[in-house]
Amino acid sequence: MRKLKLPALISIIGLMGSVVFTLYGILGTSQPTESTVRLTTDPPLSQLVPFEAEALTNRPPVRLTLQAVDATGQPLQNARIHLRILTPRSNPWFTTDFPIVEGTELLDLEALAPQGELQIQQTLPIRGTYQLWVQVSPVVANQFNPIQKTLTFSVSENWVKYQNLGLLAAILLVVGLGGGWVIGGPQETQPGEIAPQRVRLLLSGATIVAIAALLAVNLSAEIAQSHLSMPMSHMAKHEPKFSNSGVVQSQGLELRLSGDVRATVGTEASLQAEVINLKTGQPEPGVVFDLQATQLEKDWIAFAATLPAAKGQLAWKQEFFDGAPHSVEITVFPQPGIGRQFTPFQVAREIEVEGVAPPIQRRLIVLAYFTSFVILGLWLGLRLRSWRTSSIRLG
Amino acid sequence: MTASSPNATRQQVGRWALSLPVQATMYVTLCALVLWTIYFTTYPPIHDQVHSLRHHTLMVSCH
């Protein structure tokens, strides 16, 4: 009996040891072992949809919150966060409605994060997987080890686009089927028919003229396009909404918004904001900038953020993905209890954004997809007519 | 003989124009051009009219 007890005891201890080891492993991996960056979105990731151009109601931009935390999950204080947002990769075989934006940088921003948190609002132009390149570094050297992470999240396509493609495919199949049925019919003039060969030839001639006219219109548009980026409604001339000087003075301070006043879709515009103390001529420390970029034609917000600027200066790069005029508005606030207190005031500037036509190869690829539905329908129509003709003859 | 030759040529051209491959090609070409005009042309008046349709159809790139 005693002989049996010792091995049993050893087995129990061994079993308990392995359970404790396993539990430690599970619990250990659930806690961050080093500083990291957490991403949260509003709406939640599963509900993200890309920007819907020509929508009946404007959807607010997505709120992206980055929180830098240490190994124990506590926020990293007095951090500086550098964020770059990269759009989904380009795929010419399955293009989006903003192909020029694919595989580009949407935002490049570096800001102070006293509580280790950076929050921005960004309209996401297309479906796919976005990359957020984040670098967190301490304002005071050696306060914590810098972190560099690349976070990703995916945005699903708007289901309406799938629905409309399905509808279009069905229409094209029916068009092809009808054409095949008619073209595959008997070509000889039957007794009672009123369309002799001359009329058929005339109709064919009219078709050729229509083809030539459409070719001429479309080719001339493409040739004009090669000289001008995007001669469309977005480029229509309009009166600027603001004075566009980008300088406003108030309460002994001067708020300046400088940088690019013209931008092109696919490339970033560089912008800078600065508050100058008119007495000293130096940047005013301890301020907060509230930024907002708005598309002026449809009045939707492309980007917004509230960022502290300890030295009264802020610089960022952003891509305006819609080829239409935008406004950039900056309101400056004093940081409570820090530096000089003043009433918030605002400066605004208009940015002309030049659209770029999608590459012709991409449009030709999708045209080939669409035309293949017509060809499929045509083939089915011809087969159907042939089958019917042979069954009538046999009958 | 010389009087019937142009007539025969005309008939031959007519038969060729009304043949199934030519008619099918013309039909597909016309459909493709109509599709291009609606979904892909950069011609401003057309683009503006169908702008919403383009942005709401999968795989149609607008700008």
Would you kindly provide a brief summary of this structure?
The complex is a heterodimer of chains A (395) and B (63). Chain A is of the alpha+beta class. Chain A is built from four helices and 16 strands.
Describe the fold and architecture.
The complex is a heterodimer of chains A (395) and B (63). With 395 residues, chain A is of the alpha+beta class. In chain A, β6 and β7 form a beta hairpin. Chain A is elongated. Chain B is mostly helical and 63 residues long.
Strand order of the largest sheet of chain A: 1-2-5-13-12-15-16-10
How much of the polypeptide of chain A forms β-strand, as a percent range?
25-35%
Number of strands of chain A: 16
Roughly how much helix do the residues of chain A carry, as a percent range? Answer: 25-40%
The backbone outline of chain B, from C-alpha atoms, is elongated
Q: What pattern of helices and strands is seen along the backbone of chain B?
A: HHHH
What portion of residues of chain B is helical?
Answer: over 70%
The low-pLDDT segments of chain A are 20-31
Keywords for this entry:
heterodimer, A: 395 residues, alpha+beta, eight-stranded mixed β-sheet, elongated, B: 63 residues, mainly alpha, 4 helices
Could you outline the blueprint of secondary structure elements for this entry?
The complex is a heterodimer of chains A (395) and B (63).
Chain A: H1 2-30, E1 36-42, E2 62-69, E3 79-86, E4 105-113, E5 117-122, E6 128-138, E7 147-155, H2 159-183, H3 197-227, E8 247-250, E9 253-259, E10 262-264, E11 268-277, E12 287-295, E13 300-309, E14 313-319, E15 326-334, E16 345-354, H4 360-394
Parallel strand pairs in A: 10-16
Antiparallel strand pairs in A: 1-2, 2-5, 3-4, 3-6, 4-14, 5-13, 6-7, 8-9, 9-11, 11-14, 12-13, 12-15, 15-16
Helix pairs in contact in A: 2-4
Chain B: H1 4-17, H2 20-39, H3 44-49, H4 51-55
